[in-house]
Structures are given as structure tokens and as C-alpha cells.
Amino acid sequence: MRWLMSFVLGVLVGAGGLFVLLRAVPDEPAPVVATAPPPATGVPATGVPATQIDPQLPGPPVVQADLSDVDLPLRPSSEMAASSAQAPADAVATAVHGKLMVPVQGMKLASLSDTYDQPRGKQRQHEALDIMAPKGTPVLAAADGKVAKLFTSKPGGTTLYQFDPSEKYAYYYAHLDRYADGVKEGMAIKRGDVIGYVGVSGNSDPNAPHLHFAVFELTPEKLWWKGTPINPFPLLSDQQTVAAQ
């Protein structure tokens, strides 16, 4: 009996001591393990804390921005003009190359110079062909069509705008001395018809009479003064007539 009481007393004393010891030790926070974020496609999970991930392991793939819809800086105006004229010129060359006659009587293609790209001041190109000839030389219709507009302007002087039969293209004759008798707006004209005479009207040099001849592709609105310029030089021919199609 005495032995049992000593055993119980010892247990109680030991438990109390253990309780006092535990109270004296501060609580430790539960360990926090930082795990790596979910891996990107193709990157295996490592199962180790993020701070221990090997920096050589591949990361998420780099996505390149799609710049196809981003506005790019505008090109120089001269470059834009050249490129804008090139596309329709190809179409015109296919349709009418060799079908426009030299629009000044007695002039041969071999005697002409391509003045389309010559600069005019600092801001623009000529975008036309100058055909030098004595004042009063007859100006001929380069192709069939109709007279779209007779117009007088400060730079062009006495001018005539002609539409081709499809009304997709216009031919512009400037610096005329005068129109041929009977020429009027809306009238049909044929290739080789006399429509006017070489002069020095507008801003032309009085000592250098010539025809300023231009070709341009009309806009859908078919405005006689507006369109995309096309180099007329490669579209000219010495042929006076056109073979039936």
C-alpha cells in the first residue's frame, strides 16, 4: 500500500514538473513552406520551395507582341508617291501599254525624255511628261474617249481633261495655247483628233513652249481633277492607229 501511494505521488509530481516546463517554452510558429507557382505548359513541377528552384530551369515561354495592326511611321512623301503610283501603273501597262499615241503632232517617242520623276521644288515631283514643241503645234488625243473638262488654272493655263472609254483613267493636257475649234465638254473624241495647240499658258516658261501631258487613275467618284498619277512615258507608242481587238 505504501508502495502504491509513492508511485501515484511520483506520477503527480512528474506531471506537474512537465507542465511547468512546457509553459516556460514559447510557442513556435508552424513552418511555412513557399511553393513555386503553377508551372507554365511544358515546365514540370519541382515540388521544392520557390527559393530553391534552379534558376537555369526554363520559365514560361516569351510571347512576342503582334505588331501587324500597329500603325507604323509614315514614309517620306516621295517614297509614298512612288509606291502608290506603281501598283496602278502595272494594271494600266497591261491594259493600254503601247496604245497611247504621242499626243503632239510630228513628235516621235525616241525624241522624248521621261520627266515624270523630276523634282518640282522641294515638296513634289513632276508626275507628268513635258513634250517640247513649237508654239501652235497641234495637240492630239492620245486615245479614244470623251472630253471631261475644259479648265483654266494659274499653274496649268488652258487645260483639257479627257476620260478613257472605261472612265477608269484620265489624260491631262496643259499649257495649251488654245483649244481646237469645236471642242467642248462631253464630246466624244478619237485617237489622233486635234484637240488643241501647244502653248505657254499658265506657269510655263514663255521661251519653252511644250505640252504637259499626265495620266492618272480616277477615284471611284470619277472626279476629273483627282486620281493616282501614273507615268505616261512607258505607255506611249509611235503607232498612229490601234489594231482592232
Describe the protein in words.
The protein is built from two helices and 13 strands, in the order ααβββββββββββββ. The chain has a domain at 103-118 and 126-237: Glucose Permease (Domain IIA), CATH 2.70.70. Strand 11 (210-218) and strand 12 form a beta hairpin. The longest helix has 23 residues, at 2-24. By secondary structure, the chain is an alpha+beta fold. Strands 4, 5, 6, 7, 8, 9, 10, 11 and 12 form a nine-stranded antiparallel beta sheet that branches. A two-stranded parallel sheet has the order 1-13. It has a two-stranded antiparallel sheet with strand order 2-3. The protein is globular.
Q: Assign the structural class, choosing from mainly alpha, mainly beta, alpha/beta, alpha+beta, or little secondary structure.
A: alpha+beta
Count of alpha/pi helices: 2
SSE arrangement, N to C: HHEEEEEEEEEEEEE
| Net shape | globular
CATH superfamily of the domain at 103-118 and 126-237: Glucose Permease (Domain IIA)
Which CATH architecture of the domain at 103-118 and 126-237?
A: Distorted Sandwich
Uncertain spans:
18-22, 24-85
pLDDT averaged residue by residue:
72
The N- and C-terminal alpha carbons lie at a distance of: 138 Å
Beta-strand residue percentage = 25-35%
Rg (C-alpha, Å): 44 Å
